[in-house]
């Protein structure tokens, strides 16, 4: 049992009193409440479920054959950062100024921050909710990069640099800091699965959930495996649901066990778009 003398009790009382004064001295006017913060206000009380409903536009999807994709070098992979080995600050400064934004025809500009092999599928995803979080039209660029080892990368970014888009510059991302993109190799073999293609309809129907219509789906079958006769085998299938937008990755020889990885199956994906600050001509890039 711990015993305290009079001095100890007085010291303890002083500490408690000091803490009490510190707590009561907090100026609440210096802290914003949820009602004063637009992000919190939009998403509290499950209100956000009414703000996000995504749809992949079927007519916007394009298949890039592996031999075409492998020959297309993304400007970000030839960034002077790699050749000149400039300082981190110089690299960040250049990117924030948007000096490496390359025009890509009607599709706007190629994102200078994307690293790794070019995509195998590209398209456009719309937020078709009646009331969007930004209060305006929200359009996202969708891409799928299929890798030789079975890895697949699904990327969603804000459309920018074209007439009608809200943004002139790409949103700053840091692929080169968090991804080992130099070790990636695009799959040499890929097949676009479409409901209107008689050669791929049967494969799609084997993946589509019971009660769903195959016309609301498309997919990508890919891989660099080979069978005993050295014939290429496509070992992986990425199933894409158009509306509501969702993605599932299946192993081609084990479809019955279900998807190995799913994206947005419960429709909980919320993409927070950039917003203009009051009086600003260009929104934040982060």
Helix content percent band: 10-25%
End-to-end Cα distance: 57 Å
Task: Provide the domain count.
Answer: 1
Q: If you compute it from the alpha carbons, what radius of gyration comes out, rounded to the nearest whole angstrom?
A: 26 Å
SS field, number of helical segments: 7
Signal peptide: 1-25
Keywords: Signal
Description:
- With 286 residues, the chain is α+β, with helices and mostly antiparallel strands.
- The protein has one domain.
- 21% of the residues lie in helices and 21% in strands.
- It is built from 7 helices and 14 strands.
- The strands form 4 sheets. Strands 1, 2, 5, 6 and 7 form a 5-stranded antiparallel sheet that branches.
- Strand 10 and strand 11 form a beta hairpin.
- The longest helix is centred in the first third of the chain and has 19 residues, at 6-24.
- The chain is elongated, with a radius of gyration of 26 Å.
- 20% of the residues are buried.
- Mean pLDDT is 77; it is low at 80-90, 92-101 and 279-286.
- Keywords: Signal.
- Residues 1-25 form the signal peptide.
Question: What descriptors fit this protein?
Answer:
alpha+beta, 5-stranded antiparallel beta sheet, 7 helices, 14 strands
In short:
The chain is an alpha+beta fold.
Task: Compile the SSE list and pairings.
Blueprint: H1 6-24, H2 38-43, E1 54-56, E2 62-63, H3 66-71, H4 80-84, H5 88-97, E3 102-103, E4 109-110, E5 121-127, E6 139-146, E7 152-158, H6 175-178, E8 190-193, H7 198-207, E9 217-222, E10 225-226, E11 232-233, E12 236-241, E13 246-251, E14 261-263
Antiparallel strand pairs: 1-5, 2-5, 3-4, 5-6, 6-7, 8-9, 9-12, 10-11, 12-13, 13-14
Keywords: Signal
Signal peptide: 1-25
């Amino acid at each position: 049992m711990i015993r305290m003398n009079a001095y100890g009790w007085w010291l303890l009382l002083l500490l408690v009193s000091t803490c009490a004064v510190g707590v009561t001295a907090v100026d609440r006017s210096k802290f914003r409440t949820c009602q004063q913060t637009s992000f919190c206000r939009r998403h509290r009380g499950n209100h956000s479920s009414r703000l996000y409903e995504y749809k992949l536009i079927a007519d916007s999807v394009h298949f890039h054959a592996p031999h075409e994709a492998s020959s297309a070098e993304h400007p970000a992979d030839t960034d002077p950062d790699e050749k000149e080995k400039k300082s981190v600050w110089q690299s960040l400064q250049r990117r924030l100024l948007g000096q490496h934004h390359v025009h890509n025809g009607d599709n706007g500009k190629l994102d200078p921050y994307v690293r790794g092999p070019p995509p195998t599928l590209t398209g456009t995803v719309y937020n078709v909710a009646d009331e969007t979080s930004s209060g305006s039209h929200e359009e996202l660029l969708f891409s799928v990069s299929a890798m030789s080892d079975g890895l697949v990368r699904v990327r969603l970014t804000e459309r920018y640099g074209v007439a009608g888009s809200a943004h002139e510059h790409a949103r700053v991302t840091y692929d080169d800091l968090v991804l080992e993109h130099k070790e990636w190799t695009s799959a040499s073999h890929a097949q676009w699965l479409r409901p209107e293609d008689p050669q791929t309809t049967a494969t799609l129907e084997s993946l589509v959930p019971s009660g769903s219509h195959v016309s609301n789906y498309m997919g990508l079958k890919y891989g660099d495996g080979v069978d005993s006769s050295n014939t290429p085998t496509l070992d992986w299938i990425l199933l894409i649901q158009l509306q509501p937008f969702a993605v599932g990755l299946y192993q081609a020889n084990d479809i019955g066990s279900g998807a190995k990885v799913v994206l947005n199956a419960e429709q909980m994906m919320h993409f927070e778009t950039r917003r203009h600050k009051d009086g600003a001509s260009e929104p934040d890039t982060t």
